[in-house]
Amino acid sequence: MSHDTTLVNQQRQxxxxxxxxxxxxxxxxxxxxDFPYLQRRPARIHGWQRRFWQxxxxxxxxxxxxxxxxxxxxxxxxxxxxxxxxxxxDVFEHLDHREKNGYLRFFTEFEWLDRSGSVEGxxxxxxxxxxxxxxxxxxxxxxxxxxxxxxxxxxxxxxLLKLAASLRDLQEHDDHVFAIEKHLLELLD
Length: 189
Ligand code: SIN
Prior knowledge:
Keywords: Lyase, Transferase. By secondary structure, the chain is of the alpha+beta class.
């Protein structure tokens, strides 16, 4: 599958019949809110884990030297915390462009972080069949890769460090993200 998913998302999942949709963000969508939203709430999804296994050709790297960014990997017992936004459906024109480097959007259920209920909404996932996918490697190697990468949206290290800070703000622990952060801080010293 091509790594530009803009058209695929628009064609296979038109949203015009809806007024607003909830969107779950687990990577840069937690801290980089360059889109209007009606409301936002911390949330979590079950059965998925956050992994820095996706290549970035357009934000934190280039096609020649991709960066490493977050995607979700299915894992039956996992829980992934993030931020949910209620947005009007016209906002997906911007979001589909922003997330075009391999991410497809899916409807799934997410639960409010305070456990007060749940809602059905969209999440962008970059699966192993997209051309920009890099796959697993050790957290130390991921940190080394992130330390040397940069792209049009800035240094790859900024993506990781802002995500780690946002998870702390949510009082959430993520072993994978915090292990990469530890190695990265040593490298940036
Ligand atoms: C997300 O944040 O939910 C998707 C991945 C990203 O844009 O970093």
